[in-house]
Amino acid sequence: MELEPVIGLEIHVQLKTKSKMFCSCSNDGENQDPNTTICPICLGHPGVLPVPNKQAIEWSVMSALALDCEIPAHSKFDRKHYFYPDLPKAYQISQFDEPIGIKGHLEVVVNGEKRDIRIHRLHLEEDAAKLLHNNKGESFVDYNRGGTPLMEIVTEADIKSPEEAGEFLRELRLIMRYLDVSSADMEKGHLRCDANISMRPVKNSPPLKRGDTEGVLYPKTEVKNLNSFKAVEKALEYEIKRQSKIWEDTGEAPQEQGTRGWDQDSEKTLEQRSKEGSADYRYFPDPDIPELDFDKKWTNRISGTIPELPHAVRERFVRDYGFKKEDAKIVAQEKQLAEFTEQVISELRFWLTSVDPDATEEEIWERDKTKLSKLVSSWILTNLLGLVRGADLSVSDIKITAENMAELITMIHTSKVNKTNAQILLKEMFKTGADPSDILQEKDLGAMKDDGSVDEIIDSVIAKNPDQVEEFKSGKDQVINYLVGMVMKESKGKADAGAVLEKMKERLSSSS
């Protein structure tokens, strides 16, 4: 029997507001001593009244719009009841039937194929406290996290593979960072994910639609404890194998839905408990919090604050700047990197007109776009980022200004410096932030002018190495690399290695 996975995700995103969701406590509890950023409101003392965080509501609406969700005119908060030590009120303030956003979608690309993943809903709630355990079997509760603004984003069961789930999460994290509403670090718990998965026979698989009836979807398993993208993918891969075996052994699907936890050490999912339904939580509207009405004018204002999103950045770098798709993807991985690269391109246009005043910026760019885009992507994404990663720094730590980076690329483009010495220049710029022209002059790294001096060095090297010349003439082509190296040494690295190679070939061929 051929089976296919049916996967949906429930993602929680912590918002980085200054205060908590329903009180004025600092939302920086993870960096403070346990149980210090708390108050009677987030501890649920009798008689206190919660006040919704306006910033959290606005950011949730903005996030929903960025995910192409519809924003209903009306929303409200509900009490979700369950008893657990991390919930001091014995209920969580959440949203049940009137969320912030509905009917959204997010496009991802997996193995070159575009997939549109529908988003069922986005709602806002408060986070629970954090449970801590020691090796003595004791458990402790840190209520600092309790009451933190938390967005829950629920997808439809549209995801077809573990790879697709991982790519969806990566793209969602990127969007949250572009919006600057969350750091979305999974390792810090700022972005958490539960995965729902079931299997079904391929031959009985019409396209999934909201409201599908029994027979299309089978009992699902919810997988928890997923603290990285790799954990999500591995847990889903394991569940596909586990559930497929149940189908093969029994000839039918698992009979009831349940919850399992991912165990990193054994790389298996382990049974935890049966999955509750919404009725088990006894939802009802929170009587202490006014209902929300979203005015169309207000929603449009929020929409106007959404920055250019990652997919648009990628498309624009390919369309306008001639970047390869894979390079555009790297650029868009960090908002600051995309902004820096764009600033470099803007400065580069100015520098190029200074060395070619007879042409306009547009004429120079269109004429040399392929070569220039290759230079920009190579020197920023490979060389500069290599230095950044090697020093364990971030893009925000770069001392090099966009103007100086553009000047360096102009020097390379106009052969004012060869690539070997350009590497030396870049390393010095990275360390000091100095102007490349100053370093060039100070260290005497400029390229040799084509005034015959390079030809003289080539002739001298040929004359001093007759044995190597004879080896080349006898068919040992690789010997020419030695001769080129000697020329570069004599020129103190200033000669253009590519030009030297061509001239050396001409000399040796003409003398044979």
What does this protein structure show overall?
- It is a single chain.
- The protein starts with a strand and ends with a helix.
- It has 512 residues and is an alpha+beta fold.
- It has 3 domains: 284 residues, no CATH class; 134 residues, no CATH class; 58 residues, Arc Repressor Mutant, subunit A (Orthogonal Bundle).
- The protein has 15 helices and 15 strands.
- A hairpin with a 5-residue loop joins strand 7 and strand 8.
Provide the fold topology:
Elements (H helix, E strand, L loop, with lengths): L2 E12 L39 H13 L7 E2 L2 E4 L9 E4 L6 E10 L2 E14 L3 E4 L5 E4 L6 E7 L6 H18 L11 E11 L19 E6 L2 H22 L7 E6 L4 E7 L9 E2 L6 E2 L2 H8 L6 H12 L3 H8 L2 H21 L5 H30 L11 H12 L5 H14 L3 H8 L9 H12 L1 H8 L5 H12 L6 H14 L2
Helix pairs in contact: 2-3, 5-6, 7-8, 7-9, 8-9, 9-10, 12-14, 12-15, 13-14, 14-15
Which tags fit this structure?
512 residues; alpha+beta; Arc Repressor Mutant, subunit A; 3 domains; 8-stranded mixed β-sheet; 15 helices; elongated
